[in-house]
Model the fold of this input.
Amino acid sequence: GISVRSISNLLREETGLGFAEYLEKVRLEQAAQLLNAPGVNINSIAARVGYTSADSFRRAFKRYTGQSPSQYREE
Done:
C-alpha cells in the first residue's frame, strides 16, 4: 500500500542515500566480506552480490573503497 516514491523518500531520510546508492553500498559491503573468504574468486563474488559484469563490479568496488578487489583482498 506504499508507493515506490514514498519508500524511496523514507530510505533517503533514514540513510541519506537514494535507492540505487543504498543498493550499491549494501552489495559492495557484502562483496568486501566475501573477499576475505579464501577460495572465492572475484568473478563469482561479483555475481553473488548482483553484478552481471565483473568489470562493472571492479569499477564500482574501486570507486567505493579506493582499491581494486584484488588489492583489498591482499590487505
In short: Helices lie at 4-15, 19-35, 42-48, 54-65, 69-74. The radius of gyration is 14 Å. The mean pLDDT is 94. The longest helix spans residues 19-35.
